Amino acid sequence: MSDHHPAPPFPPQQQAMPGTTAAMQPRPDHGETSYRGSGRLAGKKAVITGGDSGIGRAVAIAYAREGADVLIAYLAEHEDAREVQQLIEKEGRKAVLMPGDIQDASHCKAIIQRAVDELGGIDILVNNAAHQATFSDIGDISDDEWETTFRTNIHAMFYLTKAAVPHMKPGSAIVNTASVNSDMPNPSLLAYATTKGAIQNFTGGLAQMLAEKGIRANAVAPGPIWTPLIPSTMPEEKVTSFGQQVPMKRAGQPAELATAYVMLADPLSSYTSGTTVAVTGGKPFI
């Protein structure tokens, strides 16, 4: 193939959850050297959960280069978060780091309050952070694992959105990370896929609920994307072949999703709400 992006087989690798960018082979491309902004989000103030690595990191870089100040909420990956902070500040934009566990409703409220206090408001909320684990049998999924997945992936999205909406003006945007698993659930990702289906329904209902306030809500449904979540949550043999099942025969890089998140946050997309943009490497998303 003439495609310059890395394709499987990838080197065998495993990490402890939630994984780090530096340990990945090859290192993911978040647009550090390739993304060029054009002022589409000039003066906007954004909150991105899971903004330290993977898709969230690529979105943070893109938003900063489009002119936005950014608060990055993340669990505990301080080194990854500081790298993103430096990239944002290099663009002359403000970067606020907010570590902590979004399973906690009070922490979600604190994230939004800090954005209001330190950025001066909130125009864009990107609900991106997620928990995922692989199981071959339902009996292997503990009650705590099931609850952790729901608290992280969907409950936190509700807490954050509920806290943010009172501070959002007409023209603001909410972008939620769903998945191809929303409509095509992978049985080995039963808990994760179930939450992603919930996220898609949450987004569709939210768009209708917030339309009168002039706030848009949309989702992005990624296919296989090369992020720390992969070597830290999947068996080594699946990591090695990750992405080869789609027509492009490779995993997507986080940078390749950034434009979808920019488009959905762009005020010029003012009639786009209640939709899901699929970024799948050629696999139809019905």
UniProtKB/TrEMBL annotation:
PROSITE patterns, sorted: ADH_SHORT
Designated name of the protein: SDR family oxidoreductase
Record family assignment: Belongs to the short-chain dehydrogenases/reductases (SDR) family.
Lineage: Bacteria, Pseudomonadati, Pseudomonadota, Alphaproteobacteria, Hyphomicrobiales
Keywords: Oxidoreductase
Coiled-coil segments: none
The keyword Magnesium appears for this protein: no
InterPro entries xref list: NAD(P)-bd_dom_sf, Sc_DH/Rdtase_CS, SDR_fam
Pfam families reported for this sequence: adh_short_C2 (PF13561)
Region feature (Disordered): 1-39
